[in-house]
Design a protein that fits this description.
alpha+beta
Length: about 70
């Protein structure tokens, strides 16, 4: 079976013709608004001119950091 303690953000960067797969550790529980928070970090990174992979990693780390402070 799949390891439920790990998640993955999968995407495709058409400009680079490259697949993106960013792994992250799941935080147990139900956390509302994390998708919105991730999207904000992702868009922030893309607006800074970062790659899709770097922006997705920034989003995953931002959400993880926010959940750790709860």
């Amino acid at each position: 079976g799949a390891d439920e303690s790990e998640g993955s953000i999968v995407g495709y960067d058409a400009q680079k013709d490259d697949r993106v797969d960013v792994r992250f550790e799941r935080v147990p529980g139900h956390h509302f608004g994390t998708g919105d928070m991730f999207s904000a970090f992702l868009i922030d990174g893309l607006c800074r001119g970062w790659s899709l992979e770097k922006s997705a990693r920034y989003g995953a780390e931002g959400v993880s950091d926010a959940l750790a402070r709860r």
